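re: ur question from yesterday

yeah so i grabbed the chain u mentioned. its 75 aa long if i counted rite. heres the sequnce exactly as i have it in my notes:
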Amino acid sequence: MLCTIKKVAATYQWFENEWVHLVAVDPKDRSLHRFVEGGFKPYTTLRKTVPTVSDVLSILEKETENVDVHLLESA
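ran it thru and got these structure tokens back, copy pasting raw so excuse formatting
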């Protein structure tokens, strides 16, 4: 995962500078990990469940503040 987000330096800066927060799902146990300080650390949401969405743009268009963690469905 780390190699993937480092491929585009400009985008990587968003995560490194914490302008955009990245949360990854472990495919084995479904645990969440947030990218912090150059690596992924365990992450616990404030909600008991994480909402799943198929279209993140509809959420981003409505929000003017921080967006909660959502699980993006794969196509």
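noticed a couple things. The chain has three helices and five strands. also The two ends are 19 Å apart (CA to CA).
anyway ttyl
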